[in-house]
Amino acid sequence: MPVTSSNETVEANGSASPEEKAERRRIYNDFYGKGLGVGDVHVYILAPDRSSVGGLGIGNALEAEKMIQMLEATAQKLHIVGGAPAIKPRPRSVPPQSDAASMVFHLTARGNRTGSWREFPSENWIVLSGPESKQLLPTSPVALRTSWEVPAEIAKKFYQWFYPQTEDTSIVNRSRIEQESMRMTVVTLENGMARARIEGALRMKHTFYPGRDTDEFVSATVLGFMDFDVAQQRIQRLRMVTEKAIYGQEPFGVALRSVSRETLRALME
Question: For the whole model, what pTM was predicted?
Fold first, then answer.
């Protein structure tokens, strides 16, 4: 059974329980004492009785062939027989709780660096309350080419997460937006439904590591669309992607989408 444990949560001031902190220390000390290899980022294999069996450093663990060989050798050593998963697989990233009037958005971001966790996209969930989501809509009568600017405080709720995977140890955001714009223009209007084209731009400072100041900035342009019911002032869907985005010298991409209530219920089951 795979189990993950965050280094930050087991520190002295970390949020892990005393039992988890004690177990992490026990595992580390036991592997160290037996010369089985240790590390802050490491794969530790335990037998059913919690005794130390073996493991891999992160460098070798990132090579699929070496990881598979180690797991197969361990299974043979412990005479493990295959079976159904002990825990039903489920998404690691789930939407936060929200009321029916709110809109929930899912954001994914990926840079072009490789190695370790940088191989995987990051995810964030953004929630706009009912009154906040209404501010995405126009305040004047709607016609073809009607255009309006999204209020800065609403645009910033999206833009503050527009950066590639960086090292984060909490959900505290380290972004400082210096310039932003998000403009919508109605491009189709039919049977009471309107589609607005989204065009935006962003310049934002974001540090790669917590507690380490840098001069790395995000520079991005954004495109997207929003479908909404004109009479009911109800947003049906919203999608945005970065057209061009750079963090420091690294190109990256972001995709953001609204998530329906039906999908949210399915994800929470």
Answer: 0.82
